[in-house]
Every structure is written in C-alpha cells, then in structure tokens.
Design goal:
Elements lengths: L9 H11 L6 H13 L3 E4 L6 H12 L2 E5 L3 H13 L4 E4 L6 H9 L5 E4 L1 H5 L1 H13 L2 E6 L14 H4 L3 H5 L5 E5 L4 H10 L6 E4 L7 E7 L3 H6 L3 E2 L6 E2 L4 E4 L3 H13 L4 E4 L5 H12 L5 E4 L14 E5 L5 H8 L9 E7 L3 H7 L7 H19 L4 H9 L15 H12 L9 H4 L8 H13 L7 H8 L24 H13 L3 E7 L7 E7 L1 H12 L9
Parallel strand pairs: 1-6, 1-7, 2-4, 2-5, 3-4, 5-6, 8-15, 11-13, 11-14, 12-13, 14-15
Antiparallel strand pairs: 9-10, 16-17
The structure holds adenosine-5'-diphosphate.
The site of adenosine-5'-diphosphate (ADP) has 13 residues, from helix 3.
GO molecular function: 3'-5' DNA helicase activity; ATP binding; DNA binding; four-way junction helicase activity; hydrolase activity
Family: Belongs to the helicase family. RecQ subfamily.
EC number: 5.6.2.4
Amino acid sequence: NDPSIPPPDKQTIDALKKYFGHAHFRPMQWKIVRSILKERRDNCCIMATGYGKSLCYQFPSVYTGGTTVVISPLISLMEDQVLGLHVANIPACFLGSAQKDKADVMRNLMRGVYRVVYITPEYAAGGAGESVLKDLDKKIGITLIAIDEAHCVSQWGHDFRSSYRTLGKIRDMLPDVPIMAVTATATPEVKSDICQSLGLRNPQITMTSFDRQNLFLEVLGKSNIQHDLKSLMKETSRRFYYEFDGPTIVYCPTRKETENVGQALKGMGVKCEIYHAGLSNEKRKEVHHRFIRDELQCIVATVAFGMGIDKHDVRRIIHYGAPKDIESYYQEIGRAGRDGMNSSCHVFYSPKDFITNRYFLNDITSERFRQHKAQMISKMEKYLATTKCRRRMILSHFDKNCKSSVSGTSQCCDNCVEKLRAASRAGLSTHVLTTAQMNQDTLVDYSKEAQLMLNAVKMTEERFGLGVPVMLLIGSTNQKLPNNCYKMKIYGNGRHRSEKWWKAFARVLKQEDMLAESKAGGYGNSKFSYMLTVLSTKGRNWLNKSLMSDGKAVEFK
Ligand code: ADP
C-alpha cells in the first residue's frame, strides 16, 4: 500500500461490499479509484489479467450515482459484463446498432438511470455515438470514460484495431471528462503510444507486475498430434480414452489445423469442439457457453477465441504450432488460471512454423513497421529455443527490470526444472540452490554434446539438413544415412540421447551462433530450395579448439 494515499473511508468500503462483495480494494485499485473520485485525473492502467480492472472503472460511478461509459471491442464481452452488473443490482446497458429497445434505453440513459454504459469504438467515434455522448455529458455529466483493451490503439502492439485510432477525438469532444485507458499487455512503447494517441493529460500510470506466478511454462517439439497431446493427458478408466486434467484451450495457427487437432482429440475420446472465425456467430456462442458450463473439456481454436472468455478456471493453454509473437502469447496464456490456481502453458512447435509467420511480413508496406514485426517474430523464436528461464524472458520483454520470485524453481518453467534436475544429479541439494546459482549456465555442461553435434555436421561435410548428422549420432540404420557414415568413429556416439533431443539441441546451437543455415538448391528452373546445416565461424573455431584439447570440455560462450 502506498503510504502517501489516504485509505478509503467506511462509506466507500460499505459501497464496495454492497455492490461488489469485496471487503477491501486491491492496492492499485484504490489508487486509481481515488484519483478519479478526488482529482478527476486521467489514468493509464496496465494490469495483469485477473487483477480486477473492471472494478477500477465501474466503482466510481456506482459510488457517486453517475454514469461511466466503457468502450470495449467485443459485443459478447459487453453482454457478459452487463449481465454481471445486473446480477449485482447495478443498472447497466449496452448501446449500439445491435441493441434492442433503443428508445427506452436512450430515455433511461439521459435520465441518468445507468451506472455503466458499454459502447463499441466504432459507435463512440461515429456521428451518432458522438452526439449521444455530448448530449449525455450536457444532461447528466459523464463520470468517466474507460477505454478497455487500450493496447489496440497502438500499431506497435500485437492487436492493432483501426477503430481505436479514432478514439483520440473523445478528448477534444469532452475535454473535462477523465479518461481511463486499461489493458493487460503493454510494452513501454505501446504505453506511450496509448497516452499520446488518446490525448491523456498528465495521466496517473499504474502497472502491476506482469508475473503470473501460478503459470508454469513449457516448450516441446512437435511430431504427431495424438502422440504430443497424449503426453499432457491422463488415461481414463475406459481403454483408449484420454482427458486433460482441467478445462483446456488448444490454440492452432490455422483453421485447418484446428480441424486436424479437433479430430485427433475426439478420436481419443476428449469432449471438445473447434472455434474459429469461419463458424457462425450462433455456433461460436454455443461452443463458448458449453465450455463455460464445463460441458466441453477443451476448445481447439484459432486466436479468434480470445478477448471475452469468461472462464476463470482454465487449467491449460496449449499452442499447437508456434505462437505469433511474445505479446500475443502473453495475452493468450493470460487466459489460464485467472482464479489464481496453478495452471500450465505448453507450446508444441517445429522451426518450420516460422516460415508462414515470416511469409506474411512481405505484405507489410512500411519498412519500419515490417522490421518491428520481424523483430517480434524473432523474439518468439528465441523464447522457444532458449535454455534459460522462460518466465524471465517474457517478463523482460515488458519490463527490463523485472523480477520474479518463481524464477529458478520447479513452479517456473521447463528450463528451470531441467536445471534443478541437473543440479540434483550433480549432488547439490535443490533446497540450497539460490537464484544466483540457478542462473549460472555452467551448471549444465553440454560441451561434450556440442562437440558431438558439430563434429557430426563436419564429418558429413555440411551437405545435409539436420536429419543426417543426427542419424549418424544416434547410430540409425535408416536408408537415408549415406553408407560411409557407418564406418565413422562417431557413428552411434550420441545414442544416450533421443533423435528429438539432438534436433532440439541443434536449434539451441543455432541460437548460440555455433551452427548456421545455408540455402541450397533452387537453381535453374528448379523451384525447390532447402536449408543445409553448416558450422558458423564461431562453431568451427570452437570445435577445432575442443578437439585439440582431446575431448575435454571447453566452455563455448
Ligand atoms: P481482469 O479484467 O483484470 O482480468 P476481473 O475484473 O475479471 O479482472 O477480476 C478478476 C477477479 O478478481 C474477479 O473474480 C473479481 O471478482 C476479483 N476481484 C476484483 N477486485 C477484487 C477485490 N478488491 N477483492 C477481491 N476480489 C476481487
């Protein structure tokens, strides 16, 4: 709690209990609510999912008997919120072209009946909406204008919507009404863009920690849908029947893939449905409601299943295929564990997934924006390939000075778990490991494996992708392995690890700039080009040094 801010008085707490059923404000909530009630100040609130954003903009008008206008991008989300407010005996409505009983609603609105009014950004910035807002302010005075999902204002964010861009004119239209921009995800760039484009005046900026401590993060290689997903499920008493251990969302990059995954899961006996923008509104609503009522265990969806998911006990978010970028990913996994209970987030990916993601970059005409998007994609690639703490990597994307108390523990991510295991194998008690020790990458020494991998690439004359060098290491008898490989000294020397492990390890070596890719083929009339795995200069130098030292481990950093 901020000692410079006086605590709420009894009357305020009574209203909080009466209308919202909470005994206390969360510290940031009170700071924001107070600044509206006492100072009519503009606010930019960046709050992790589940912190309680809606209370911040709903409370002021409920308390004073005024009207708050909330601009929100999704009609279904607004309908849910209006329903929730009605249940709490707070008069609220949705205003827009799709709304019924228009005349009645309008009359009540101008008489100040509603405490909270929801509108879409299109309506707010359109001619009809403009005159309604002006009229409303003249007649009863608007307490506050809240702009939900405010990151949609910014081109530098992950979910830019052009209708949000025009919301800047609200400030000119209603100069004396405080504006509150709210979002769960904003980098420092996006935050400045929000404040600037909405014309916020000396806004109070509030940022909760981005750290969702109840989410465990994991990244896995993608092979076969059934096989991959089975690893996250348990077998039920019926033979061949599987289930997730809680409500689950599986995100896929395309509609086609949702169908493939949906079919595979149904084949395993999982109660699931698919969800994407190609389905009718009714169908989508039905699927959403069945999921909320736990009639479905799992939804297999594209990112169209996003904002407005009103389910607090989602236990798993699985991305089957690489997510688009870190910000979207953070937003998507934010839908897990909103009730605060432990939940987990898994990505199954193959490096090939990025080919499609990169392909769409060609459609962007602005060079600066294209570069920005390309950077966002590479950051995601780095996240997937990293051997360091994944939580810290995501958090530092939003806040350079981030701290997480779960980093380095078994509740954090797969890499931290791996480090704990390695430390325990090395005889260190996991209990005495401090965060500082966890961050020493020397705890896991993979130099022997790095030497084997680089040597396999060298011995096969850098003429192949990853398949052949890896087959050589694991001592494969696959026909694709050239005959001369069987006689090589390193044939089978990497048998102690799986094919999947070696491929994942090679990707790490690429990230560390020890291995590189070189394009081959595509000559003459041939359309087909492919990627060879080759040694980088750094990798070549390191390998020579490590071979000279007679196989003894050499640090490659
Ligand atoms: P967000 O929009 O930030 O994701 P919500 O507004 O949906 O979060 O709130 C998340 C949950 O936190 C809801 O169940 C809400 O009832 C609860 N909540 C909000 N404020 C408080 C509070 N002051 N005390 C206890 N619970 C709260």
